[in-house]
Fold:
Amino acid sequence: MSADRQESTKDAFHRGNFWLVQPARGAHRAGLDAMLLAAAVPTDFAGTVADFGAGAGAAGLAVVARCPQAHALLIERSPEMAGFARAGLSLEENGGLARRATVIEADLAAPAAERSAAGLTDNCADFIIMNPPFNDERDHATTGALKRQAHVMEGELWERWLRTAASLAKPKAGLALIARPASLPEIMPALKGRFGAAQLISLHPREDRAAIRVIIRAWYGARGKLSVVPPLVIHGPSGNRFTARADDLCNGAASLFGD
Structure:
């Protein structure tokens, strides 16, 4: 069902600096993960950011909203979700951003010739961000085809997506990804020989709780070793209010790695 026929909502992000059109139900809806991933891009970034598995376009548009010299490629294989991304770009509220974003329907695991035919050429990206479906089949009883595509990981996804990222990356391009900590044994070998000088930050729901996500940032062709930076705590000791730092990051007022 197309975005103009499926029930949807119009949602503000970055305190109204950009808006998304999202399915009201039955599909993934953007939130904290996408905003924190976008915050991994340096504030002074100028160039093309490729948003892998963009969905309705949350992470890519968050980068464009914070970085005035950035252009986003919103790459999504689902025609339905790509339709929502296009609907978002057509909103009057996004008029200042829409010309700096392009929706591309493409399967990131497809051969290079097929990706190129869809408009996604090699050596096109100065930065790549990815928020893939990283839940195991057994973790959630996810119903609905669109929601399953967004939540449930396919076999060898990290290897296939990072291989494609290396193909799309320009020299010294950046990469940022968000994942569950349990995915690290698959991510780190897939980065090797492609993206180096990685920084890892763990995301904790509260100060005394284990990490629920990690964000890794690395650079194409770099040789430096992995470093672990101080963690991000999302909520205070009680209640659901964000910590001051998490609030700034989620609303485009700061960068995750301080640059």
